[in-house]
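Help!! Second protein's tokens look totally different from the first
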Amino acid sequence: MAEAFLFELLQMHNSVHNPEERCGICLEEYGTLSRETGTMEVEIRLPCNHTIGSACIAIWLKANNTCPVCRHEFFPAQPRPYLEHGVIMNGLDDAEQPYEGHQQTVSEINADYCNELSLDIGISMISGLIAQKLTESENWSQGHTSWCLVSVSIYMASHLTGEPRSPREIATVTGVEADHIRFCYDLIYPERDHLANAHLLSLLQDTFDAVVPLNWPAPGYEFTDEQIENNHISHMLRQGYQRVCNELGLDADVVEISIQIAENLGAAGLMSALGPEGITAAAIFMAAHMAGCPVAAGRVAEVVGTSDVAVRAAYGVAHAHRYRLLEHAWLEEIGQGSVERVWGRLPLP
């Protein structure tokens, strides 16, 4: 319920533009980076007509169902989940978990774990909806701990949203063994379509451009932890290169060329010599010239966050390995012309 309300609340039509106003929770001006949340606060109008910062209200609603100003109730309070039995986790079942003031709800457990895994609020909302659905099902709520259900829900949500986390990664945060996460997912997999209600599908489509059929992770051990983690690293790498290229006004071809160059520089054993920033800068500087839209080394350095000298030094090393960095057929396939013409666009170090 909280996730659904928050999703509707954080739509653009609820945003307000009063740049001199301050959030009533963190007391920061709207439109500035909040020191409390580390994110940009957008002023959001609540159903009771009070306004609060977007990040602060998201945190508030993890544990509350009211307005932080007037205590107007936005949705029914969620009952505390009863303690499940039957699955032992690290030698303790739910009834034996350390007491921390109150028994955490599934929603709170989910929010905490997603935060520790650096998953954004959209993914947290998806996993929260799945966890709530599992909790409401007698088939699952009576045979599995809340920690287990949340772990499996995060595993599913991370794949559905294109930010996959492996069972091993999730286990380091939740304490539920990786093999147990996989085992429970295999049990759930045949019934996965029952989890995808209209709200979940709407959230996936509107926020993550997901399409039916959904990208559920494969059951069993078709993908190892290493493969999932490498896929996640590749995804993060692509996002980083897209961000830099977008800021430099470079198109998708430059992104593809620069990623190929960077991966081959790493495969050539140059990561330790150049470092991540050096490889990024050299790859994008080189790719921009090869695609016929050169960018100055100083400008690349500014966006990547390094120096002009460092970019030129890294490019010098990359230039010496240039013939090993890209397949000739691949260059021609993406429409960059003859190999000789492409290499001829590169400046001397």
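Here's the second one for comparison:
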Amino acid sequence: MPTKKPRLQVTVTAEVQEYLDRAHTMWPEETNTSTLVTRLMAEGYARVTTDAEMTLRRRQRARRKLASTHPWPGPPAEEHLASVREGWAE
């Protein structure tokens, strides 16, 4: 189909064929290889996005727990840091 959008080429190696076979098992109604590749990409994107969100939430929980255990110093610490920075050579 004509398009001005960039196209991708993928060599169907044994590994890629395995992915396509698995995709065909998951979506037997799809007979078009391009559609299978697109669905696989969408599934992969959803997984990566979910994993990234889970990692972010895990890190946020860890930060909250750490902050409640060892609260970050307030303004007095900032004043101390400012005095330390004054002594630094530029």
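Reply: Different proteins will give different token patterns, so don't panic. The CA atoms of residues 15 and 21 lie 10 Å apart.
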